[in-house]
Amino acid sequence: MALENLIIPIFSFILFIIILYKWCSSSVFPTRNNLPPSPRKLPIIGNLHQLGTSPHRTLQSLSKRYGHLILLHFGRVPVLVASSAEAAHEIMKKQDVIFSNRPKLSIPDRLIYGSRDVAFAPYGEYWRQVIV
User: Fold this and answer.
1) Contact 75, 45 (CB under 8 A)
2) Residue 48 carries which DSSP code?
3) pLDDT digits over 94-126, tens only?
4) pLDDT digit string (tens) for 45-54?
5) How far, in Å, CA of 87 to CA of 69, rounded?
6) Cross-strand partners of 87
7) In 27-91, where do the E strands start and end?
């Protein structure tokens, strides 16, 4: 009798979690057209469970399977892993403007006057003026 009263709330909660997961995962990366290959991830922790006790060996085996550029997710944070000198040179020297920005964090935004510090400011004209 008590279980019959809980079916609708349990079903609604499960449906809410599924919709929330789909919405959150689509807002991080709306399209997968130009993304590097990635191993399958879990909904909340991403690929953290795959790192194990020796992450360097795990990343080496993943690079053998997926190539020199791998997209991993540490929670909801996407991480691009370059496992060759050529890929690292491409990222750090040729595509530096694309990868030079910092993530938008809410705590420095509140504590440091809208992320106006040199460590948290987004890359751009303001950041160039601050470091001079």
Assistant:
1) yes
2) G
3) 887 777 777 777 777 777 777 777 777 777 788
4) 999 999 889 9
5) 7
6) none
7) 69-74, 77-82
